Backbone:
């Protein structure tokens, strides 16, 4: 299976402006993410950005970068444009959409996102983590996977929600938004308009489920640290610098 890891990155973060270039232990954050993607050993790694500064930073540290349109509404659209630019002949079979704000992510977690595509019935692979914090079970900022187990480490996603679900006794799972796409699934997804439930929950992945695509989630042990605020950035610095 030919795999391309694309890391969408834009400078226009509202809570942490200039986030991709934030310094962590002497390197921009986007470079840390690209380094970890490369360490996964899955395939070619490219930063997809609308910012020449981000592209220059990635290239200065030995990574590929591709420029994309400034008007994309989602990372999926940016990833699809980058794919068309990098592989117009359609040789790449699978694409991993890895967010550019996960500088401490374990390369094994990136590998886990691709694992569900071993099943030819699966269109999109993603990740889940069992929720252990009681507060996270009820907060709307933590997206939950409602899924049916297909193995001890994998769920077939039936729904994603900001509500506390499913009801009753049993584990709840936090969705980690890293996606491994079959090429045909990504092409179909970006051709669709926003769906009703996608708009209602503000969750892009519901568009795929409403269109009949299958998403399976591999269960991993911890949620990667996403850097959205100055406080998150300090935590990432402390982790990488060993403080």
Residues:
């Amino acid at each position: 299976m030919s795999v391309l890891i694309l890391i969408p990155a834009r400078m226009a973060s509202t809570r942490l402006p200039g986030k991709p270039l934030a310094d962590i232990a002497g390197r921009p954050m986007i470079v840390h993410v690209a380094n970890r993607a490369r360490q996964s050993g899955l395939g070619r790694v490219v930063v997809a950005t609308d910012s020449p500064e981000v592209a220059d930073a990635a290239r200065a540290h030995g990574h590929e970068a591709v420029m994309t349109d400034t008007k994309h509404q989602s990372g999926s659209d940016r990833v699809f444009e980058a794919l068309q630019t990098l592989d117009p002949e359609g040789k790449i079979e699978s694409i991993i959409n890895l967010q550019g704000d996960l500088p401490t992510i374990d390369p094994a977690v990136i590998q886990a996102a691709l694992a569900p595509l071993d099943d030819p019935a699966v269109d999109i692979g993603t990740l889940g983590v069992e929720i252990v914090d009681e507060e996270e079970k009820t907060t709307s900022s933590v997206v939950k996977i409602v899924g049916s187990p297909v193995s001890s480490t994998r769920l077939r996603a039936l729904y994603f929600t900001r509500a506390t679900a499913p009801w009753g006794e049993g584990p709840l799972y936090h969705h980690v938004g890293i996606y491994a796409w079959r090429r045909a699934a990504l092409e179909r997804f970006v051709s669709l308009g926003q769906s009703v439930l996608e708009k209602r929950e503000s969750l892009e992945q519901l568009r795929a489920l409403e269109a009949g695509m299958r998403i399976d989630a591999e269960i991993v042990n911890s949620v990667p640290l996403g850097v959205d605020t100055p406080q998150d950035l300090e935590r990432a610095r402390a982790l990488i610098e060993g403080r």
